[in-house]
Amino acid sequence: MNNLKKALDDKGITIRAFAKVLGVDERTIQNKIKGKTPFTYPEAVLSKKELFPEYDLEYLFKEE
């Protein structure tokens, strides 16, 4: 999730703000970003729509 981490940093979006958009707690977001638990498709789509409209979904959630 390096691209997602970079996008969050570039836009100054905090883990707290990201968690609020998705309606989950901060620990859940941390686990998802670290790859411990996967993002669901609806979460990925909502993230792109609400926070990252300028990025491609595939770019943001590319596994590395």
Describe the structure.
By secondary structure, this protein is mostly helical. It has one domain (2-59): 434 Repressor (Amino-terminal Domain) (Orthogonal Bundle). The chain has helices at 2-11, 15-22, 26-33, 41-50, 57-60. The longest helix has 10 residues, at 2-11. The N and C termini lie close together (7 Å).
Distance between the termini: 7 Å
Largest sheet: none
CATH architecture tag: Orthogonal Bundle
**What name does CATH use for the topology?**
434 Repressor (Amino-terminal Domain)
Q: H/E series, N to C?
A: HHHHH
Q: Please provide the count of β strands.
A: 0
- Which consecutive residue ranges, at least 5 long each, have pLDDT under 50? none
State the helix count.
5
Shape designation: globular
